Amino acid sequence: MAKDNFLGWLGLFFFVFAACLMPLSGVSAAEKQEIRVGAINSMTGMNVLTGSDQKWAYEQAVADINKKGGVYVKDLGKKLPIKLIFADDKSTAADAAAAMEILIKLQKIDLALSSNVTPLNIAAGTVCEKYKVFFCITSSWLDQIEEQNFKWCSDFFFSTVSASRSPFDVWGMYPEAERPKRIWLMMEDNPDGQGFASGFKGHAKNMGYNIALDEPYMPGTKDFSSSILKAKGRKCDSLLWLGSPTDSITLIRQIKQQRLNMKYMHGYKGFWPGEFYQTLGKDADYIIHDGFWAQTLPYPGAKEIGNRYIDDHKGQDSVSIGLYYANPWVLAQAIEKAGSIDSAKVRDVYYSGEFMAKGTTMGDLKFNEKGLHLTPCLALQWWEGKRLPVLPKVYELKWMPPWDQR
After folding, report:
1. How large is the greatest C-alpha to C-alpha distance in the chain, in angstroms?
2. What does the domain layout of the chain look like in residue ranges?
């Protein structure tokens, strides 16, 4: 009798054990109600202005995807909505890594979207590599992301080489006598700025331009007076700049205060948010900034998302949202192509060398075997609150007059 009881209990144990092993994937498939996508974002800190545009665009894209029923996942045999979960990277690399840890370990995300600055995305990408969670990056220098040899990250943006060429391309459209002669190069003193500076130096050397002052600066600097005095002393007539929006506003105010007259200013990242012009007003006229995107480009939905942004922001436009808006849509297409939300399978789509995300607000994006796509860099000049494309040459460049002649 005891033997029969033992055999009965043993049989029950194996039945329960087998039952626990068998349908786990089936149960999880049936219970899966959403695709959990984490996004690190600069909600606070020096990049909050650019971060807010990115957050708005991500939210709009996910809402539009979900209005269409979500993303079809073949492995699960159904469409699922995207659940977008943000974590504040506080505009620092260390906090970006910490934010990604929170998203992966506590929020249990399936896939991840990037912030808007290269050092932050590299830090977060390193965490994704550790946990093998696929990370869809945008607005990070393509060459610097490639140097990381990531296996779980993609990127679409321009490279430091292609982006740093645009001022020289603008100048090349005008007679040599009109072009700047003595360049002030001022980049953030971090990997982002250092990589970008090397691109400017290479183009200047190849095209015969003189960098009269190369002055890296520490992000968050409040007093640029010593650098401005150096630029005056070396008779700099142009500025090439990379900095946050808050640093950019501080710099331009102090350049005006010290009456440093230059004929050309071209800034990256910090010069393009709408708040830059709103804060400086006419002092921002003539200044050129980089651009990822414009709603006048002939891309699907570009005009519509641009107008939606303007309606939500009291008439102010944006040159970044088309890039950010495209990122969740590219991810959605990759999920559908993979037929899965498994990070490895989605990664394999991006890394296949054949993946083309079609009909995005950035046009059709073809990714290479490293999961990278090179986008063009625009140059737009602030004028009376509007952005005039000078590269490509839609409008004639307006050289900057002295401050007392404006």
Report:
1. 107
2. 32-158+301-375, 161-291+379-405
How far, in Å, CA of 44 to CA of 307, rounded?
Answer: 26
pLDDT tens per residue across span 117-173: 999 999 999 999 999 999 999 999 899 999 999 999 999 998 888 889 999 999 999
Element (H, E) at 389: strand 386-391
Distance (Å, whole) CA 309 – CA 314: 9
Phi-psi region of 359 (alpha: psi -120 to 50; beta: other; left: phi over 0): left
| Class of the domain covering 161-291+379-405 | alpha beta
State which H helix or E strand residue 5 sits in: helix 2-21
Listed in sequence order, the DSSP H helices in 134-181 are: 142-147, 160-171
CA neighbor of 377 nearest in space, from 234, 282, 262, 242: 242
User: Please, where are the H alpha helices in 75-159?
Assistant: 93-101, 118-131, 142-147
The terminus-to-terminus CA distance of the chain in angstroms comes to: 104
Domains 32-158+301-375 and 161-291+379-405 share a fold: yes
> Topology of 32-158+301-375 in CATH?
Rossmann fold (3.40.50)
Identify the band that residue 341 occupies on the pLDDT scale cut at 50, 70 and 90: very high
**What are the phi and psi torsion angles at 224 (to 5°)?**
-100, 10
Query: What tokens were used for 98?
Result: 């910490």
The Cα–Cα gap between 144 and 141 comes to: 5
Helix, strand, coil percent content, the chain, rounded in steps of 5: 45, 20, 35
Contacts of 255 (CB under 8 A, 6+ apart): 224, 228, 239, 262
